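Structure record:
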Amino acid sequence: MGTYKESGAATFWSYTLNLPLSSNSMICWKFCYLLHKVLRGGHRNVVRDSHRYCRNVKDMGVLWGSLHDRYGQIVALSAKFLCLKMEFHAKHKLIPGNLEASDETLDKETGNDKNKVLDMTQELMEYLDAGLKMEETVLRQLDANGAKSDTPAGQCRLTPLIPLVLDCSFLYHFTVLLMFKLHSCKRHINVFFLFNRAIVLDKALKRNNHILCFTGMAPDILLGHRERFRDLFNSLKQFFDRARETEFFKTVIQIPDLPDAPPNFLRASALAEYKRAVVVIPNEERTDGEEAEQQPETREAPQMPQAEVEEERNYKQMAMVEKEHLRMEVEGLRCANVANVGAQIGYKEADHRAQSAELRFTQLKERHAELITSHADLMKKNAETVKLFSGTKHGHDDLLRSKQQLEIELENLRRENSNMMNQQQQEFQRLNKELLEQRAQLALLRSTLDNKDMEGSQVSSSLAALHAEREVLLRSAREKDAELSSLRQQAQQQQGSQDLERDRLLRELEALRAQLQQQLTINAEQKLEIDRLRRELDSTRSELNRANGALQSREMSGTQLSSSLAGLQAEREVLLHSMRDQDAELNSLRQQAQLHHSSLEQERQRSSMEVGSLHAQIQQQACREGELTQKLQDEQFCLLQCAVVEAEGIILDAVAKLDDPIHLSCISSPDYLINRAEITLGSIDKMQQSHVVYLGNRNDASGLLRAVTQFSHLTADTIVNGAATSHSAPTDQADRLTDSCRDCANHCLQFLKDLKIQASLQRADPSAVRFTVQRLLGLAQDLRPKGQDLQKGELGYLVDKEMIATSTAIEEAVLRMDEIMNQAKRDTSGIQLEVNQSILGSCSDLMKAVHMLVTASADLQKDIVEGGRGGASVTEFYGKNSRWTEGLISASKAVGWGATQLLDSADRVVAEKGAYEELIACSHEIAASTAQLLAASKVKADRKQQEAAHPEAGLASR
């Protein structure tokens, strides 16, 4: 009512813009319901005023659609439906917001432009699809929550579906009419004429410009529209069936039954069989019923003749329509009268149609006779009606008026029938004349064709083949065009959805960044406030310390007074025994002491009160500090939740690439996946450390925020590269890689979910994520080509290099051992010198023995290579026996490293900086290394070569 008073919705929007729509989903849901009611029942300018705020409603829907709230999803779908509603009515201003428009209004809005009809049909389907998705989500959530329709929670969700049911009924009706209009082919009568035949025929007689000519489209082009309409019909039928069974809708609205199957748009007569689905609200139906009951019963009798007159008029109009069809068919046959092979078939069809026209004309004559008979019956009924209501003056007057009206209409009908019969007779004669002329021409053509029958047989066969080939090519072209159009539509839809998703993610990112900056600012302010409170607390503590010092000094003075009082009492006793005359003076002194004691007690009480007040202030400060700390912890946890939500988005984006067909062209190497997995394992360790630090001090979550960000990016990178690596891997390993990537994403999302919830924050553990990443690392290492680190030509060179390096290291160690011994002789003496000489001598002997062993091992290897390589080169022999070569390299490195460690340990022991256990450990290490080198050398050696190596082995064992 307010919108009608002010002729718009300015006041409505001025109030609704101040509502907390971005913080309360329940308010958003009720706002969408209210806006829907205003758009349906408000002033016609409401759509124009509300369309300005369409962007706000759309942003609100995007915001709640991205949040996991119980009303968030249905608010997003409702906002999308309302935006489509406002855009549709803003574009088509003739159709009101409540969609209660007549068929003529819809026809006027679409016109004769088939492109405009096609666009409006698509808009209506999108309009209806948005509403059906909204109701489907509402009912699914209602079932998931287990709520009843008669409870407040259920009614809160179901009430906004009442105007949606009304909208869906009108949208379904409009879509059916436009689909029939799109499928009509050169019908000179509007598609809406067949739906409301009596009314439109009456107007067609008075207004010839209402008869339109609309050239329809090919059925194959509209295949996608029919499929989409079938899906919408099934969804709408399920919605109406479910709503009729719901207890809540039974009391507030009456929902009609839809047919079992959608209309067949390829059959023109299906429009006459179509029945409009009308939704009725009981209050409105009751009002209409009361108005109908108030009409006098005497008006029922004249309605029967009126209905028959209308039926007669309909039959007359149908006859005119059939006549027009016949005329068009004859004109088409005349235009098709050409001298070719197909002319014979055309004339046969013309002959058949002429016979059909004669049959129809005969049927029209019979129908005219029936009409005359019905007129006579009508006159009899009128006479009976006059006799029946002659008793009352009011009824008599009504009957006289109806009789006069019927007589006038009958006279008009007779005149129209006679004119129509004359016209039809003339038209039939003209058609017969044209048919005779065409038959004569046909006979002439037949004689010509008989003469050229032999010459045209080959042409006919080739023409038939060409026609068949042409039909095949046309059919394939139509199929290709349909596929191309569907692919274009899919590509446009996907591009649009991707653009919308990208815009939504950018907006969410900007919002999160703004929230993060705001939280950081608030955090800095709180830190300043905490510092100020700490300074106040320090000053309060210093004041308390000063008060405690004063109290202690006063207690000491009280103790001194007590001791002096005891002395005075002793003196009083002495004076009592010695001098009785000084009792008065002693009494006065006693009184003074008591006064002083009372003042001291008062001072103590006052100090106790001051201390109590100071303790209360300290407790208040502690409580305030605790509140600030709790607030700081809550804000830090809020920041952590924001970071975790962003991390979940990153992980989900990485998981989406696993099933993205565009990502199939991306390929990664196992080495890069190994690099990513190793870095991710390091980030997991850092994440675990930051988590432990945050649990110990929840006032600062900066370290955990950085760890979460790094962890999410690296994990997502590992998942994406794992998927890319699987594209070039064998099938089994590719499946294991993909499954491991999914497991990694699931465990990562579970870990982030635990971090996001306060109750599960303590038990959040990334061990499962670490295990899956390690499994990815192992799979990547299995995918690496074996022996790719070194070329076969480099193995022999590397063996010689390592053996030379080992010999050089041992020789340097022997020389260095001599230098250490000389230094020990200069710096030490006595028993210490003997011990050092013994140690260094043993080490020197050991190094010399190892040097001999390395030399013997090198000679043995040369013998093995020369004896086993045959006609191949040394490099090819090492490359062929790559594992044996790698064992030699490893053993040589171990021997050289052990010699270096033994030298360093001996130097530290002589300098009294090391322990003898280090020498023992180094000697054991050298023994193991020499055993490894000996074993590696003897693997390829024959019996004679092994016997030659036995003395060196014995030397090494000593």
Observations:
- The chain has a mean pLDDT of 75.
- The CA atoms of residues 248 and 632 lie 48 Å apart.
- The chain has six domains: 1-98, 101-290, 308-451, 455-633, 657-783, 792-957.
